[in-house]
């Protein structure tokens, strides 16, 4: 048994036991994933997935897919499942399609966009209170919004080399970096609140096992 396999020892059983306890439904997001885990991927399936992507997945996440499940019960509303549909692999879930899989082999940026550029664009956002004509406001806001979503926070290159792995509701998501110097780490995505992606300061195993321990503590309370 290698180190990555030991990381996930008994995790699937622990998740199943949590789901069987009545208090398990009180854990945030549990109603979304229902404590269900998809079947693990085989080594052949993982190889096929990585061949399609053109990258090797971070070891902790890769071993999770192999030892625990291809998605399901996990932080927030659960880990986005990866499935093969019509001969192609893809992640599924609310926002899972935000990942440009053709850019996974490109390094995730070491640094985000210039905050001054982002702040300047935000400062140009129309304020409804300054408009007497609501139609004029709507027109101006739509024009600004188009520039905002074409701006540096939402450019495809901002999330190159990463995949969304879960959502927290209200367009908030978390990403796993697959390629680059931040490989294997999990990042928060608060762009819906006009903020740039930020590191959670943990690896995939820290992220998942930390959630599992908190869920078990909540059930025991």
Task: For the structure shown, list the relevant keywords.
SMI1/KNR4-like; two-stranded antiparallel ribbon; alpha+beta; 2 domains; 221 residues; 8 helices; 6 strands; 4-stranded antiparallel sheet
Write the layout of secondary structure elements.
Elements: H1 3-7, H2 11-20, H3 30-33, H4 43-53, H5 59-67, E1 82-85, E2 88-91, H6 115-123, H7 134-149, E3 162-169, E4 172-177, E5 185-189, E6 198-203, H8 204-220
Antiparallel strand pairs: 1-2, 3-4, 4-5, 5-6
Helix pairs in contact: 2-8
Description:
The chain is an alpha+beta fold and 221 residues long. It folds into 2 domains: 3-112 and 152-220, SMI1/KNR4-like; 115-149. Helix content is 37%, strand content 15%. It has 8 helices and 6 strands. A 4-stranded antiparallel sheet has the order 3-4-5-6. Strands 1-2 form a two-stranded antiparallel sheet. The longest helix has 17 residues, at 204-220. It is globular. The chain starts with a helix and ends with a helix. The model has no long low-confidence stretch (mean pLDDT 94).
In a few lines, what is going on in this structure?
With 221 residues, this protein is α+β, with helices and mostly antiparallel strands. It contains eight helices and six strands; from the N terminus they run αααααββααββββα.
């Amino acid at each position: 048994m290698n180190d990555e396999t030991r990381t996930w020892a008994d995790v699937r059983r622990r998740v199943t036991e949590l789901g069987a306890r009545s208090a398990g439904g009180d854990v945030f997001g549990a109603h979304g994933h229902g404590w269900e885990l998809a079947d693990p991927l085989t080594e052949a399936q993982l190889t096929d997935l990585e061949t399609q992507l053109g990258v090797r997945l971070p070891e902790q996440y890769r071993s999770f897919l192999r030892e625990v499940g291809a998605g399901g019960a996990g932080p927030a509303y659960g880990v986005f499942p990866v499935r093969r549909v019509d001969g192609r692999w893809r992640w599924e879930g609310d926002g899972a399609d935000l990942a440009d899989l053709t850019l996974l082999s490109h390094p995730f940026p070491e640094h985000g966009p210039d905050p001054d550029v982002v702040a300047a664009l935000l400062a140009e956002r129309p304020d409804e209170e300054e408009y007497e004509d609501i139609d004029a406001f709507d027109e101006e806001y739509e024009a600004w919004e188009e520039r905002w979503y074409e701006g540096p926070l939402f450019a495809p290159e901002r999330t190159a080399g990463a995949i969304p792995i879960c959502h927290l509701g209200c367009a908030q998501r978390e990403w796993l970096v697959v390629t680059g110097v931040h490989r294997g780490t999990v990042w928060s995505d608060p762009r819906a609140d006009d903020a740039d992606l930020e590191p959670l300061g943990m690896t995939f195993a820290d992220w998942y096992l930390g959630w599992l321990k908190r869920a078990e503590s909540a059930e025991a309370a």
